[in-house]
């Protein structure tokens, strides 16, 4: 007896393919969601960079004289400055704290810090790291831990 030539896929083969696709989707979706949050957090860090520039300019202009108090560096905002930034605060040493929003529940109202490294009254570099946000959501160059800030100003307001 001749066996009929099989054309197409059997049901079990199709079920295996569907299972493999399901497993791949279960792995890829969380990775993509974390990637999307990191991309938006990068935008928030970029918004903080404007304040970093202002602080650097003040350090240069005030070399050897008194520095402004927290909130007096000229770049702060108690309200939203971008889609993902709720506010920008500074302390008396020029450290910048950015509070984020509208990104993800995991990072809502969490903070990112940019802290100047000062030597002989001049800024020689900046460190970027988490304030209250989980470091896994930050860009790779912004994961310095243990950063400290002083008294921050201005106080953030609800929008």
Q: What overall form do the CA principal axes indicate? A: elongated
Going by CATH, the architecture would be 2-Layer Sandwich
Helix content: 25-40%
- Tally of structural domains: 1
Q: CATH homologous superfamily, by name?
A: Glycoprotein, Type 4 Pilin
Amino- and carboxy-terminal Cα gap: 80 Å
> What is the SS-derived class?
alpha+beta
What portion of the residues fall into strands of 2 or more residues?
15-25%
E-strand count: 4
Protein name: Methylation
Family: Belongs to the N-Me-Phe pilin family.
Transmembrane segments: 12-32
Keywords: Fimbrium, Membrane, Methylation, Transmembrane, Transmembrane helix
Describe this structure in words.
With 159 residues, this protein is α+β, with helices and mostly antiparallel strands. The protein has one domain (11-137): 2-Layer Sandwich (Glycoprotein, Type 4 Pilin), CATH 3.30.700. The protein has one helix at residues 11-61; strands at residues 85-90, 96-100, 111-119, 122-130. A four-stranded antiparallel beta sheet has the order 1-2-3-4, with helices on one face. The longest helix has 51 residues, at 11-61.
């Amino acid at each position: 007896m001749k066996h009929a030539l099989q054309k197409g896929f059997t049901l079990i083969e199709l079920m295996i393919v569907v299972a493999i696709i399901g497993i791949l989707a279960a792995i890829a979706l969380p990775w993509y969601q974390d990637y999307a949050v990191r991309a938006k957090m990068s935008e928030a860090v970029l918004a903080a960079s404007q304040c970093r520039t202002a602080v650097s300019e003040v350090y240069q202009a005030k070399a050897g004289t008194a520095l402004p108090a927290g909130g007096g560096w000229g770049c702060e905002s108690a309200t939203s400055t971008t889609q993902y930034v709720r506010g920008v605060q500074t302390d008396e040493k020029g450290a910048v704290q950015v509070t984020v929003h509208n990104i993800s529940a995991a990072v809502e109202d969490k903070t990112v810090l940019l802290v100047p490294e000062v030597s002989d009254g001049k800024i020689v570099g900046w460190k970027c790291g988490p304030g209250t946000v989980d470091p896994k959501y930050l860009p790779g160059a912004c994961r310095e831990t243990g950063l400290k800030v002083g008294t921050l100003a201005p106080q953030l307001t609800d929008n």
